[in-house]
Amino acid sequence: MSEVHTGGCQCGAVRFRVEGPLGDASICHCRMCQKAFGSFYAPLVSVRGTSLTWTRGKPKTFQSSNSASRGFCADCGTPLSYEAPDGIAMAIGAFDRPQDIAPKIQWGVESKLPYMDGIAGLPEEHTNCDADAAPFLATLVSFQHPDHDTEEWPPK
Length: 156
Prior knowledge:
Blueprint: E1 4-8, E2 15-19, E3 25-28, H1 31-37, E4 42-46, E5 51-56, E6 60-63, E7 69-72, E8 79-84, E9 87-91, E10 105-107, H2 134-139
Parallel strand pairs: 3-10
Antiparallel strand pairs: 1-2, 2-5, 3-4, 4-9, 6-7, 7-8, 8-9
């Protein structure tokens, strides 16, 4: 059986399926990727040579440069894809199992934010360790799409 990966946006309006082995996974620090993801960098994985199918909805695209466009959910804004002349890459965080896709290289390091290398050394805490936040956290209900395909979304 072929390797299969699924994913989608946070609201569930757009879902995708990738059949075949994923290519190289990377993070890009360039300023265009920082802005497109609203983050420190863009984690992407190549899907060149695979079969990419949009199984629910389709992303809206933004032509971010003369040679690349970026796909995102028009409803919730989740970044989904990067398409350039050499192929399509998908946002690693949009996959249902992002923990299975480890970046192997960093690109655009000339734009890497100066504090990035120190982030791993910052103190760490689990969300539920903040006793003052526990009452608030107990009331949270996620409206995000689950990390798997569903027949009906949103649920009734």
